[in-house]
């Protein structure tokens, strides 16, 4: 509930048992307006048309109206608020900003600092700014903070500050040999220092002296968010990520005798110290993350780069709900501060499970280990882990059996299996993350089931092992950089889409999460994606098209909303004409073919508590896609899309007439990256030659006072078709049609 004219604002919503508790800000002098609702209800007043003014829908749900209490403002897990009210800890304080001017924002922060200081609480210098919120950290006890009713009235919501997960080092080490000399002799490094894409690793720092690392990272490419920490790697983690991001799994690179070309460079920002432990210090994670991103951009602003972070919180209590940290990732990716002029690609590890008892329940344990903050960020490419490593070479562990089958999810990965259905389908993809083994004594990680990489102290040994979603995300960043080399003009949204579009589920994934073939439901496919993403990407599929498999790429923009009088309404629809070779497809008749569609765009976040209650208020805008159906005229298709674009934001978009999509419209349109796969006959596909991209609700539309409704939204659209091997060459047939530009009709 909110009333902009009276400045009455809904601050936060939380569930308390069977009740919904809402915190409402009522300015001085406006309480009478709020009380008028109650008066009208009691007196059964009616308007001039005889309609009731009793506000039953609202007031019948209200159990009590009272002044704000500290615990009423707590929107985190109730068990995280200490029972001992005198226990001091770090709080995450969300302050409401009621106005768009910078001076108002500064006044809000300044006033709160003074009020909180009067209670003896300590406020962090860093902060995270969002359209209607400022987030700061505060150290103190509940008893201290509760003494100031005025300070409480400045707060929209309270949460507990996060702890980052420890980095995982000290893995078992294989015997070290002088293989690096042979690898260096075969390696060809980029000589284009100015234009080569960078992988900027946000990690524990790097020790550049390693012979395999020195050629890809310049001394000027080392940064830190805390100068007292330095830039070197004491945790033996960041240096390992450089090895993976440069060479992939070193065990493969070293075993080969072929030349290896390295066309990208590496940058490093030390985001965490030592093992990655950051126990809720006075620096907000969102603020540190933003600082880490800004440093290389200030020094080298014109270099193309992908940011890769393996730093996550120690817990997964957000369960898909946006946090200040994940919202900052979304904000930086969309480049909200510059109205989207310079978007960024973020590769984010999903977070790990190193509970060996949970490994023994595999795969059931994967459903309860949820993606860690900030992996729920809509705009990030969130990476989970799978494994192909099932061979155990250690003689003293010959009685062990691998936990995951070849091609199955890694025991160490995380999922979004039990997130609320409103939140994005994560992870997006999975890369190699290693396996674990078990015997009668329990579970263990072995070097032979891990990835090989560079050690942080090359004076002692050259190689060490790594695993889990850290190594998986480094592999993903490497693929992103390779695609940036191959396609230097593509947008970050397109690179993200290409990686996901090239992914395939393994047989092990399909057997694990899908029922018997022929009985698979859309819900089963959603469950598969929430555990395994869209599968394991493949560089060859991302780079090349063949005679029976090809991909079309469209980069375009749309104005999702416009102002009509005093109302903000849905705006444009883009209609893309697909150059399907109708004659060739119809000639294939009933042959089963596959069409895959990927829509990628970046949203601007608004992580007020509305975002914790509804996806429709977190994202600046949402886009959807749909394809013309057989026997549907173009006019009917356009009319159907227009009706869908104007439907109520909370309405389900049922699609009973087009059941051949794996996920369907209701399931695929979550987050800011949508993918679906259609399967049918070639003749059926021949009539599906139009695809529409159209808007759905977002806060650019629902928050008109922020004046963002006129902004354009950029997107990337990938469409591919795949047929069995035939003599029909679809590639050349389509190439002839697209010799003329593909038109996009608005």
Automatic annotation (TrEMBL):
<dbReference type="GO" id="GO:0004252">
    <property type="term" value="F:serine-type endopeptidase activity"/>
</dbReference>
<feature type="region of interest" description="Disordered">
    <location>
        <begin position="645"/>
        <end position="667"/>
    </location>
</feature>
<dbReference type="GO" id="GO:0006508">
    <property type="term" value="P:proteolysis"/>
</dbReference>
<protein>
    <recommendedName>
        <fullName>Peptidase S8/S53 domain-containing protein</fullName>
    </recommendedName>
</protein>
<dbReference type="InterPro" id="IPR000209">
    <property type="entry name" value="Peptidase_S8/S53_dom"/>
</dbReference>
<dbReference type="Pfam" id="PF00082">
    <property type="entry name" value="Peptidase_S8"/>
</dbReference>
<feature type="domain" description="Peptidase S8/S53">
    <location>
        <begin position="197"/>
        <end position="535"/>
    </location>
</feature>
<dbReference type="InterPro" id="IPR034074">
    <property type="entry name" value="Y4bN_pept_dom"/>
</dbReference>
<dbReference type="InterPro" id="IPR036852">
    <property type="entry name" value="Peptidase_S8/S53_dom_sf"/>
</dbReference>
């Amino acid at each position: 509930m909110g009333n902009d004219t009276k400045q009455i604002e809904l601050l936060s919503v939380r569930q308390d048992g069977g009740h919904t508790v809402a915190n409402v800000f009522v300015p001085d002098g406006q309480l009478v307006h709020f009380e008028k609702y109650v008066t009208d209800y009691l007196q059964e007043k009616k308007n001039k048309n005889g309609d009731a003014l009793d506000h039953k829908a609202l007031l019948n749900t209200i159990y009590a109206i009272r002044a704000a209490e500290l615990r009423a403002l707590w929107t985190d897990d109730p068990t995280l608020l200490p029972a001992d009210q005198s226990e001091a800890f770090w709080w995450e304080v969300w302050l409401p900003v009621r106005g768009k001017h910078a001076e108002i924002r500064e006044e809000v922060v300044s006033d709160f600092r003074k009020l909180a200081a009067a209670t003896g609480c300590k406020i962090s210098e860093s902060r995270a700014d969002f359209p209607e919120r400022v987030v700061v950290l505060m150290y103190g006890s509940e008893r201290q903070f509760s003494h100031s009713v005025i300070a409480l009235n400045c707060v929209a919501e309270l949460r507990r500050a996060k702890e980052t997960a420890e980095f995982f080092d000290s893995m078992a080490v294989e015997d070290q040999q002088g293989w690096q000399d042979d690898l260096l002799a075969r390696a060809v490094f980029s000589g284009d220092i100015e234009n080569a894409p960078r992988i900027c690793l946000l990690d524990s720092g790097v020790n550049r002296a390693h012979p395999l690392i020195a050629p890809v990272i310049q001394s000027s490419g080392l940064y830190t968010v805390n100068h007292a920490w330095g830039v070197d790697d004491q945790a033996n983690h960041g240096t390992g990520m450089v090895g993976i991001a440069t060479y992939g799994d070193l065990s493969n690179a070293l075993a080969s005798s072929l030349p290896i070309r390295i066309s990208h460079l590496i940058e490093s920002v030390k985001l965490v110290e030592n093992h990655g432990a950051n126990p809720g210090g006075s620096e907000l994670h969102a603020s540190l993350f933003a600082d880490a991103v800004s440093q290389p951009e200030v020094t080298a602003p014109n270099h193309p780069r992908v940011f890769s972070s393996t730093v996550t919180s120690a817990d997964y209590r957000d369960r898909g709900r946006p946090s200040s940290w994940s919202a900052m990732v979304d904000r930086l990716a969309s480049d909200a501060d510059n109205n989207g002029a310079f978007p960024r690609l973020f590769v984010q590890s999903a977070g790990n499970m190193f509970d060996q008892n949970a490994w023994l329940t595999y795969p059931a344990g994967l459903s309860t280990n949820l993606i860690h903050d900030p992996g729920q960020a809509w705009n990030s490419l969130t990476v989970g882990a799978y494994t192909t490593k099932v061979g155990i070479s250690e003689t003293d562990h010959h009685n062990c059996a691998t936990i995951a089958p070849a091609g199955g999810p890694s025991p160490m990965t995380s999922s979004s299996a039990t997130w609320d259905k409103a939140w994005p389908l994560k992870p997006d993809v999975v890369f190699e993350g290693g396996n674990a083994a078990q015997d009668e004594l329990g579970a263990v990680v072995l070097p032979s089931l891990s990835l090989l990489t560079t050690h942080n102290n090359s004076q002692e040994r050259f190689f060490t092992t790594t695993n889990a979603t850290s190594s998986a995300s480094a592999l993903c960043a490497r693929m992103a950089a390779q695609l940036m080399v191959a396609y230097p003009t593509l947008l970050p949204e397109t690179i993200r889409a290409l990686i996901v579009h090239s992914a395939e589920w393994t047989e092990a994934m399909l057997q694990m999460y899908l029922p018997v073939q022929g009985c698979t439901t859309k819900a089963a496919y959603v469950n598969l994606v929430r555990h395994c993403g869209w599968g394991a990407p493949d560089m060859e599929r991302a780079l090349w098209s063949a005679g029976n498999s090809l991909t079309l790429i469209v980069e375009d923009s749309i104005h999702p909303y416009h102002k009509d009088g005093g109302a903000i309404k849905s705006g444009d629809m883009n209609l893309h004409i697909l150059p399907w070779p109708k004659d060739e497809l119809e000639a294939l008749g009933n042959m089963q073919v596959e069409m895959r569609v990927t829509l990628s765009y970046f949203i601007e976040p608004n992580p007020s508590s509305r975002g914790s209650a509804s996806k429709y208020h977190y994202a600046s805008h949402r886009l959807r896609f749909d394809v013309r159906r057989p026997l549907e005229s173009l006019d009917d298709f356009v009319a159907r899309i227009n009706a869908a674009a104007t439907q109520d934001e909370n309405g389900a978009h049922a699609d009973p007439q087009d059941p051949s999509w794996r996920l369907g419209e209701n399931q695929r349109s979550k987050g800011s990256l949508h993918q679906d796969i259609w399967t049918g006959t070639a003749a059926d596909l021949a009539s599906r030659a139009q695809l529409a991209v159209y808007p759905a609700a977002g806060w650019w539309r629902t928050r008109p006072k922020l004046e963002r409704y006129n902004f354009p939204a950029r997107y990337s659209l990938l469409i591919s078709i795949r047929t069995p091997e035939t003599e029909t060459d679809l590639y050349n047939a389509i190439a002839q049609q697209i010799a003329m530009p593909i038109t996009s009709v608005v």
